[in-house]
Amino acid sequence: MWKDRRLQFILTFGAVFAVVPMVVRNILPYDMVENLYWGKELQPGYVKHPPLFAWVSYFFYEICFSWPESLYVLTQLNLLLGFYFIFRTSRLIFGDETKSYASIFIFMSSVCAVFGNEKFNANTVLISLFPMMFFFFVRLLKFNRKMDALALGLASALAFLGKYFALLYIGCLWLFLIFDRHSRRMLKTPLPYVAAAVFLLGIGWHLAWMWNSDFVSLKYSLDKSINAPTNFFSCFNFLLMQTVFFSTSFLAFKYSYSGKMRFLPLKDGQFSSEERFIIFITIIPNLLLFAVSLMTGMRIGSFWGTNMLMMLGVYLLIINGDHLNHDRLFRFVKGTSFVFAVILLAKLGVARCLLGTLDPTNALNLRSISDHIQQDWQSRFPGQKMTILKTDKATAALHLHLEDSPSSYDVARNDQYRIYDRYPTDTKVAVAFLCSKNGGEIKYFRDFYKTDILFDNMVSVTEEYSVYYAFLEVKNDDDRSRHQPGGASI
Questions:
Q1: Residue 486 pLDDT more than 80?
Q2: Where are the domains of the chain?
Q3: What one-character DSSP code corresponds to residue 49?
Q4: Please, which residues have CB within 8 angstroms of residue 75's CB and are 6 or more apart in sequence?
Q5: Which helix (H) or strand (E) holds 454?
């Protein structure tokens, strides 16, 4: 098996796109740092998202000897796990290894396989979890076994704990059972209800946390989508982006297909239940999301299609049948992968090299700055653990090197309020952010945090920028103003 050149190429693909950002990026992207920071404390939920991806991030970081760049490896391992379940699903449907590899290659040739999978976060964790969920659902349709129902329930729970968006697809599994005339008979058996019971058991503890936390993470998700500023063009932008992102997948199929290519199924009767499910799960969730956005103006993320269309290759093979030249497809995906690697190198290289003087984050020496902060803290408060280092996005990666606690993400506190509104009196807090030499940000900071500054200092980064940090003592007086800031939160 390991001598198969197709498998070797897939593994090489993952390795290359793990190494490229390691070599070119200077610091981890903000949301990946945030994942690690949350994962320091294994809470049952966080202010923005359910906990799974933060837990996985921090566990992988720890087993890799606290090496931050290991998250790029995790990102690609997550993609390879998604490929594995695409392969297994395709093998169940076609019983053919060559078509199973083709199903992977069609997705690999898309822009989303590279640029929609640069970081491991709440969106990309679904790249592995959705194909896993679909695989066990197809097995359930094909074999009607209780073990597959149990596995489906567990996979669905993991998807929900990855991102609440998974509820759309979990609901579509039930819609398929209701509307597909051949699969509807399964509703008269215990199997779907066994899966539902395992799902509810798997997420019950998180639902309890949501209830006790006033649904703070769900509110955040709604604020980023349904409650975001109305934009009735968002659905058309999403449609345009998916067309662009997956145009190379359609080109790959067209290049290697000798017959007349079809985009939609023509006759329902010629497909098995498993094939009808793949057609259903590829089309219906996208249509539902488009319709809701069209009617409400709900925002749709451009790269949501990365996990929504993981089964595109299986779908195209189902509706178009045979006549695929697999050698031509293999050559095409190797060519597009090379082009994508060059583009990614250029994109990240420009950001670091050519724009290095314009972007001060490229000059941050995180370890050195962290040492400065830690030493100053210990000299003034010996034996006391830093309660929280509150940062801006530019300095967020300081959390990877400091012995602080992520209490700023305690869901019982509102992160948008002043520090003295969120911590008990006499709590000592550290704050750090990137500032320009004119000190405008520091003036805003001093005006905003009207509390005792016990110590402050600056570490030079470039001729124009420094990192400013301060230690505060919370004084939770009744006469202090308690309103939300008009500007950005530091």
A1: no
A2: 5-348, 362-473
A3: S
A4: 18, 117, 118, 119, 120, 124
A5: strand 452-460
Greater confidence (193 vs 295) lies with: 193
Q: How far apart are CA 142 and CA 89, in angstroms?
A: 11
Q: What is the token pair recorded at 304?
A: 């949501």
Cα Dmax for the chain: 77
Which pTM does this prediction carry? 0.87
Contact of 103 with 90, CB cutoff 8 Å: yes
Q: Which residues contact 189 (CB under 8 A, 6 or more apart)?
A: 144
Both structure tokens of 89:
């699903």
The predicted structure's pLDDT at residue 129: 96
pLDDT digits (tens, 9 = 90+) for 253-308: 999 998 888 888 766 568 999 999 999 999 999 999 888 888 877 777 767 777 88
The model's pLDDT over 7-57, given as tens digits with 9 standing for 90+, comes to 999 999 999 999 988 887 767 888 888 888 888 878 888 888 899 999 999
User: Crossing angle, helix 97-108 and helix 5-24, to 10 degrees?
Assistant: 20
CA-to-CA dists, residue 162 to 166, 292, 445, angstroms:
8, 22, 35
Cβ-contact 425, 476 below 8 angstroms? yes
Strands (E), 202-271: none
pLDDT in tens, 277-288: 999 999 999 999
Q: What is the chain's length?
A: 490
| Pair 110, 127: CB distance under 8 Å | no
SS3 assignment, position 436: strand
CB neighbours of 468 closer than 8 A, spacing ≥ 6? 432, 433, 434, 435, 441, 442, 445, 456, 457, 458
Distance between CA atoms of 24 and 36, rounded to whole angstroms? 21
Q: Which residues make Cβ contacts (< 8 Å) with residue 204, sequence separation at least 6?
A: none
Task: Tell me how many degrees the CA angle 197-201-207 measures, rounded to the nearest 5.
Answer: 120
Averaged pLDDT of the chain: 83
Tell which residue, 126, 117, 121, has the closest CA to residue 39. 121
